[in-house]
Design a protein that fits this description.
This protein is α/β, with parallel strands linked by helices. The chain is about 40% helix and about 25% strand. The strands form 3 sheets. It has a 5-stranded mixed β-sheet with strand order 5-1-6-13-7. A 5-stranded mixed β-sheet has the order 10-9-11-8-12. The N terminus is likely disordered.
Length: about 260
Amino acid sequence: MKTTKRLFLATVALSALATLGAAHAQTALDDVMKARSIKIAVPTDFPPYGFVGTDLQPQGLDVDTARLIGSKLGVKVELVPVTSANRIPYLQTRKADLVISTLGKNAERLAVIDFTVAYSPFFQAVFASKSLAVSSFADLAGKSIGVTRGAIEDQELTKLAPPTADVKRFEDNNATVSAFVSGQTQLIATGASVAGNMMARNPQLGAEYKLLLKDSPNFIGVAKGEDALRLKVNEIIVAAKQSGEIDALAKKWLGRPAGTLPE
């Protein structure tokens, strides 16, 4: 009898905790609006999405997106620098209200956090000097293109480049970038983050986005169960897409509009 009673009391206690947790889980938006401040986790070592500028201030597409959301909410933005490893734990432990840090959405992450609609593209593409005329994959005929062997961009380029394109494969991203920077190849096929870092470090190249290989959109992370905050951010992002603000940010930092993003 005593054992049954203990089990009953334990069940009641767990149910009460679950109820409290559910109630607490819906307080983020109210807390933000009451404090007139929102903590947003951003990268500071992943250009062009987030990095520290020459003025030692964070900048990039994710940083600008964070500021856009704060502005639309009418609250102050506290930027919280994160890495790929700690960005989700920061959200779970409430060190951040939102994570805007090139997060892709997958089943594993969906089990522990929630996501807003997509806010930006993350893509693999072909880049080259502005002086090189390339507007279609057919234009790659006879031209040398550096790519990292076995990477997603290598797989996509192999499908799309004409047979006469001179595809030069290197063993890692550093070697691929070095080959392009030194003039060993006329073009480079790589991810937006690698290209952004390369262009920031080598402005003399005058490199720009030329052709899209593959798109993998980014989403904003929200703590599990924070539906009020998630839906409010969704409203802001959808409106910013319609107004052209999302396209403008993508063009500013990635060299191309965001285009159609999943909702």
